[in-house]
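Risk mitigation, structural track. In case the binding assays with copper (II) ion fail to produce interpretable data, a predicted complex structure has been prepared as a fallback.
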Amino acid sequence: MNRRTTLVAAIALTGSLALAGCSSSSDDATGTKSKETPKASDQAATKPQLSVSGGFMPEPTMPDMAGGFLTITNKGAADKLTSVTADFAGKSEIHETVDQKMKKVESFDIPANGELKLQRGGNHIMFLDVKKKPKKGDKVTVELHFAKSAPIKAELEVMDATHNPKSH
Ligand code: CU
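Fallback model:
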């Protein structure tokens, strides 16, 4: 229980930091070798203002793999989701689905004043080498990394294996 409390506090803290702490030295070239650079007009306008909602993980049916879904809402300039980390998985990737096949990608665009939806049958987070299989009712924490914004921690609620919120 203590651990859970600390975790929640840490998330709250990181969340507010992420909102307040956009550094001016952004546009870091580290990691992302993206082909398309953000339009100058996007950058001139404002910084990205990201928030995360609706995070969930269907209870994994595979022993060491799991998927994660969430929505990132952006009230500012364009950004990119560049990677995801999670301590319960040996490796976390971001995948798109093309012709019902999953494909690893380097980043997902988060449009200015728009949203990035990760949802079943489409773009998703893929957890590999899962150490301890999450069960329905659990909550797992992931950290989202962006091209410009500071990292954001998000909770994914573990739902039924078939859970698929259509109307949210
Ligand atoms: Cu995948």
